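Researcher: Batch entry, complex prediction.
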Amino acid sequence: MFALDSRLQQDTLTIGDFPLCRLLLSNDANYPWFILVPRRDDISELFQLDVADQQQLWQETTALAELLKDLFDADKMNVATLGNVVSQMHMHVIVRKRDDAAWPAPVWGKHPARPYSAEQVATIRERLRLVLTEHFTFLEG
Amino acid sequence: MFALDSRLQQDTLTIGDFPLCRLLLSNDANYPWFILVPRRDDISELFQLDVADQQQLWQETTALAELLKDLFDADKMNVATLGNVVSQMHMHVIVRKRDDAAWPAPVWGKHPARPYSAEQVATIRERLRLVLTEHFTFLEG
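Model: Structure tokens for the complex:
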């Protein structure tokens, strides 16, 4: 039974599930900032996943990055797994623009989160529905 | 013909080559901070690599992270491709410890780089020679 870390739960909105990962939206309107969490227990490092899961994580990460780059017209995608604070393995996939609040610095710790309005989240969800048409199940967060 | 970005060249030391990537050591003794650069031209995003190269990059990244975690007794490995400043695609693989200079923050922009002495670099190179025994060619930087 998959349990999401309480800090991730608190700071994000649930979008849905890829075959391996839950897709979360960081509740920070400064950037379109998504997080993939493999639905596996007790994993904090990439290499703790079995090889099939590693390949699936990579595939979901890369596909998501490509899709978000087009959808949000990114200047650069940032992809990272850090986990210094939240040990549950999670992969950041962040849309960066040259005029965003932190550019060119990484986003972490740069600005306080600006929570989304319900309307903003609904809009993002609708946009994602147009492109996440295969191998993805939307969940109500 | 592979050409390393001038900023990467300036800020790192060359360790050697995996089948796909050049392995660099960031010239910053604050952290054991390594960088993988696929030897391919004009790539800035993961999904611009062909599928075989993507799999190879993932495999080299994951294997390197696992090996460095043991070699340097990391508390956490940080793996990231950002590229907001240097557009040539590169993957950071960074050994993090709870007592390092930036913990638990990400390393970027946190502290000025502390260049290694020649002896320190020689020691790291020797330690890497013990574990990078397959599919790796050491180069003199």
